[in-house]
Amino acid sequence: MAEQVLAADGRPLKTSLNRALRRQKLRALMLIAPLLLFILLSFVMPIADMLFRSVENQIVGETLPRTVVELKDWDATSGAEPDAAVFEALARDLSIAVEEKSHTRLGSRLNYELTGISSLFRKTGRSVDEVGEAAQDALEALSPAWAERSAFGGLLGTARWTADLDAWDGEGTAPAFEARPEMAAALPETTRLYTSFANMVGAEGDNPLTEKQWPIVSHVFAQEIVTAETPDGLDAFGQAVFSDVKAAMAATTLDDPKAIFIDVDEDWGSTDVWRTIQTYSPAYTDGYFLNSIDRLKGADGSEARPENEQVYVTLFIRTMIMSFTITVSCIVLGYPIAWLLANLPARKANLLMILVLLPFWTSLLVRTSAWKVLLQQQGVINDILVWIGLVADDNRLQLINNQTGTIIAMTHILLPFMILPLYSVMKTIPPTYLRAAKSLGATNWTAFWRVYFPQSIPGIGAGSILAFILSIGYYITPEIVGGTKGVFISNRIAYHISTSLNWGLAAALGAILLAIVMLFYYAYDKIVGIDNVKLGG
Amino acid sequence: MKMTTKLMATSALVFAPLAAGAQDMADEMTIVSWGGAYSASQQAAYHDPYMENTGVTIINDESSAEAVAKLRAMNEAGNVTWDVVDVVASDAIRLCDEGLAMEIDADEQLADGDDGSKASDDFGDLLVSDCFIPQIVYSTTVGYRTDLVGDTPPTDICAIFDTETYPGMRSLEKRPIGNLEWALLCDGVAKEDIYDVLETPEGQDQAFAKLDTVKDSVVWWTAGADTPQLLADGEVIMGSTYNGRLFSLIVEQEQPVEMLWDAQVFDLDGWIIPAGLSEEREARALDFIKFATDTQRLADQAKYIAYGPARASSAPLVSTHATLGIEMAPHMPTDPANATNTFLYNYEWWADYRDDLDAKFQAWLSQ
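The joint structure predicted for all components is written out below.
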């Protein structure tokens, strides 16, 4: 084995070299760090966050935690609505959600899956405080002390907490609730609900001891106290609670949440609503993606949507075909112009270049609106065609509000993206090659096709990638000139982002679009080779 | 020493309330609206007098069309930069449901009517959401070219579906709302039964089948300016749009267009205050809202644009157009002569069925 080569300082040369290289790499990284950080923060992370929304579905589990657990064992195919325990859980969850005003939010989320849930939740939210009235009345009948608002706070909260509240000056948020451990053990659910109540009231800057507790707290308390074991070391009030109140509650008929809910809206008695809640209770869902390909989560697995609701697959296919058509039109129209640009004398080429760039610098909306004026049935083009007699006046061409309109306008808008890379590639092809071919006996066509064209392919590649990817994501132009048949999938994405607020579906559609673009890019790399793409030089 | 302390204490006592008063409300606010003639009417009727009275700076933002999405994004980012936002009622309901708008107690936080009525009575049924303060009543109605519809100008809404008497293109809004109701109405369904029928799949099929009969002669519009433009160019012979747009086309631009008030669909536009503002900004926003929705101010806006004030007590105060000098009352959608056959947009119903019917509508369009 050869002897190790040492550097001047006595270290092995290899280590020394590695070290120098590492330092260099680090310095290079430091140089691009601001840009890297910027791209990471303003580009990668927002996109990742948006893509994450396509599967995220925590809202159901967060808003209805108890219901989701109870509903787990319910068999949707049984045809019967869930049992009373589920309704009981729902009453608790909804009582809290109504105070947080999050029930309507959940309603609009689930309304994407089943029509009518939005108003069902809004309506039920207004009546949920009926659950607990019986318990509250019974308690107050038993002793006026229960009408006093601090009774529950005194029973469930620690002495330190009540003292803190008495000392609180009413500024900011109230001290957080502290439960007595023995009560938390004896009356766990009551304590949990009261904690929500006390902290929510406190967060609004009110004193929980002077606010009446939610009816649901009384309701759950009346249920739990009956079977609760009496904790040790109770004061007089506490002992009274665990003897007299316990006995009285055992004799009270409590509200039946199931009856109340079904009375508010009979939809609670239908299995559809419950099946939807059950299907969408996990924190992550593939529902949005299924929706994006015109399917839905049925009783057993995914199934196709009814035909009159299928729209996305058609739109995806249409977007692809039209983008492809637009790209091809760009090549056909752009190639000769780029050739002229590259081969005309400098003065004329510059003028032509300005003509190419001028529309490039004009506002997109202005250009699209101009096409509207040109293409409409009473527009300039139709007028000219009628005037020269090519088209009858009562049979004017339909050039806008359809696919033709989109293709014409978008080809115009994307043309510079094709011409510029083509031009910069053609500029580098030495004219001597063509001359050489001709001097060797090639016809004009053969010289072009066999010698010139192959050298311009990298420009076509770069231009096509640009035009195709840009047109796939376009939405303003199709929206304005596309009518009904000339719109793209991006128009639906925009609709779900800005109007229906169904961001999950928009994210899923966007993710699919992104995947398709990547796929095309990959295929392009395999077939043409990405190294063959040149933007210039 | 003692004297100075005393002095300082007194001055602190005297100035403290002043300082607190100044801190209570922000002195700059961002108001979001639709832009164009509509924003101009608000500027003249509300913003200018308010800035003059209070010295507050009002910054205008013309993003109402994307307000729902932007408010949600701002809310998620925890940085709401808008103070008062002008939205249509259905958006207000959505914002309220999502917890993105603040709830408002009409009687406590809004001015009483000039006739002494409580705000909740004065606005009446128009308070369609807890977060929404109505400002104007507008309607979506049909305008037609007088020179292109032949000798018998249309008198009722069903002219849209009558391609035999009125051949030619018509423009309709590219959304199910309004169109499905008109389709059923013209297919023989009684006005009061329309939403019951539309709830059933058969009813929906019936409405789409009726729309099918004109599908090939419809230009679908998305922006309020589309139909006036299409009418002016003669691209369509009739089309639906907001009544204020038709007013300026007919009265201000003197185009050969007439309005068909029949079966106009009433809708509301008004203010919301985003949830999660700081106390000072919220106080300022509430103060502005109270000023801008009082009886006189709402009546003032009608001087600049043909939309009806949302308060009952404002109606008698509606006067003449600020520059044209014509009486505005006959151009209001709420004017008794125009409101013989009206259609009230059913907010609650559409909040439920919007997602579903929109999917079906889009699928129908692309077939």
